[in-house]
Design brief:
Number of strands: 12
Shape: globular
Largest sheet: 8 strands, parallel, barrel
Bound molecules: ligand PBG
Strand content: 15-25%
CATH architecture: Alpha-Beta Barrel
Number of helices: 12
Oligomer: single chain
CATH superfamily: Aldolase class I
CATH topology: TIM Barrel
Length: about 350
Amino acid sequence: MFDVKRPDWWALEEAQGRSPGAFPRTRLRRNRHDAWTRRLVAEHRLSADDLIWPVFVIEGTNTRVPVASMPGVDRLTTDLLADVVGKAKDLGIPAIAVFPYVEDRLKTADCREALNPENVVCQAVRAIKKAHPDIGVVCDVALDPFNADGHDGIVRNGYVANDETLEMLGRQAIVQAEAGADIAAPSDMMDGRVGAIRDALDASGFIHCRIMSYAAKYASAFYGPFRDAVGSGKALKGDKKTYQMDPANSDEALREVGLDIAEGADMVMVKPGLAYLDVLRRVKDAFAIPTFAYNTSGEYAMLKAAGAQGWLDYDRVMMECLLAFKRAGADGILTYAAVEAATLLKRG
Ligand code: PBG
């Protein structure tokens, strides 16, 4: 039978006595003939509403420190945030994600700075919420920026200890929620962390704090520039393969997402983005839950580098990539290009 949602055009053609897709009566180029038809038949559209803008914050005042491997991205002191976040909000960007650059002296094996209500993340969240109460604030729940080892959890005998880390993550999420974070985004890939964070938030009364879980997060080389930006790369001992997923797997991504939903995730994410669009599509089809893609630092750096050389038209490839996330099933995209994209969308 004819499925209304996904028309079986082949069967339809046959039912009407034509051989499927018969040329010359069928010419798919007709709908591409003019800009207005192309607009009319476009299946997907990118809007500023789809974007989450990650920002990097540092201690101090009135300082911007460029991230060398991410041209156009600066680490900002918290006093500069109200202004840049205001611009993002005016462009229609619904939410920003806060990531800290933590000074070496504050990185310890027990990651205690992650739980400090005065840490740079909490300061940033308070500054943003004070100036712009109506923009969403996402906080990364993971220990790596605060860890002397650069790992996302507490390291014991060379191994990232799962259950001990859960306890820390719950407390970290509470500290961030107290500062005003709207969305806790665990990026650590410990087993059971979504449930632990949900329980911790609920027990502290933060029943409305949402959880966007980095559900299918791969052990990827695309995070290199981000680790420069937050200063965790130089600290990192070894790799993250004992907790982040193997890029060879995608059935396993469905198990990860399913578990996170069962533990209370409100939204899920696939990360990295461009090299994992197949995973994104499978997740969206299987679970029909708000699903996000992280257009990672490495993806941003690739396009910026080629654009700077004049090898690619940066604006066009960037917009094409963001649209590709939508086509693959993303409800939203975390991207360092959010402000650039929203500016281009506004210009039309
Ligand atoms: C930390 C974290 C990472 C990213 C987001 N949160 C890096 C990592 O897991 O090493 C990557 C972001 C990017 O590359 O843009 N847990």
